[in-house]
Design brief:
By secondary structure, this protein is of the alpha+beta class. It has one domain (3-132): Sufe protein. Chain: A. It contains 4 helices and 3 strands, in the order αβββααα. It has helices at residues 3-15, 58-71, 76-92, 115-132, and strands at 28-34, 39-46, 49-55. A 3-stranded antiparallel sheet has the order 1-2-3, with helices on one face. Helix 1 crosses helix 2, helix 2 packs across helix 4 (115-132) and helix 3 runs antiparallel to helix 4. The structure holds zinc ion. Zinc ion binds at residues 34, 37, 39, 56-57, 59-60, 117.
C-alpha cells in the first residue's frame, strides 16, 4: 500500500471509527493516558468484541479502531502476539504482512513522540485483558 492510501485509511478511521463508544455492559475495561499528546482512551472488552472511547489525536483514534478490528475473535495470547508485532512495526517502520491495515501506522516510527499515541490503545487493551484473568 502507498503512503497516500495509508493516510486516507487513518483519516477515514478518525472521522468514522467503526468501534467507538462506551458499551452499557462489558467484561473488562481499562483506561490509558498519554500526557505528552493529551490523548485519553477507555478500552472495553465485550462479548461482541472490543470497543473504545478515545479523545485525542488522529493517530490514537485510528490505532484504537484498527486494533478493535485486528483483535476481534482473538485469544488473549494471540492479542499479546499482535501487540508485540504492532509495536515492532511502529518503532522500526517496517511493515509486517501478517498485520494488514495496522501497517498504516508504520509511518509513526519517524516521529518518536507519537509512537506512544499508536501503542497506548494496545497497552490499555492488555490491562483490560489482565483483569479478565484475575
Ligand atoms: Zn496522540
Amino acid at each position: 500500500m502507498s503512503d497516500a492510501l495509508y493516510q486516507s485509511l487513518i483519516m477515514d478511521r478518525t472521522k468514522n471509527p467503526r468501534h467507538a463508544g462506551r458499551p452499557a455492559e462489558f467484561l473488562a475495561h481499562a483506561h490509558g493516558d498519554n500526557p505528552m499528546c493529551g490523548d485519553r482512551i477507555d478500552v472495553f472488552v465485550t462479548p461482541d468484541g472490543i470497543r473504545h472511547d478515545t479523545k485525542g489525536c488522529a493517530i490514537i483514534t485510528a490505532s484504537a479502531d484498527l486494533m478493535a478490528d485486528a483483535a476481534a475473535g482473538k485469544s488473549a495470547d494471540e492479542i499479546k502476539q499482535l501487540r508485540a508485532s504492532f509495536e515492532s512495526v511502529v518503532t522500526t517502520g517496517r511493515p509486517d504482512d501478517s498485520l494488514g491495515d495496522l501497517n498504516a501506522l508504520a509511518g509513526v516510527s519517524e516521529f518518536r513522540s507519537r509512537i506512544r499515541c499508536a501503542t497506548l490503545p494496545w497497552s490499555a487493551l492488555s490491562d483490560a485483558l489482565d483483569q479478565t484473568n484475575e
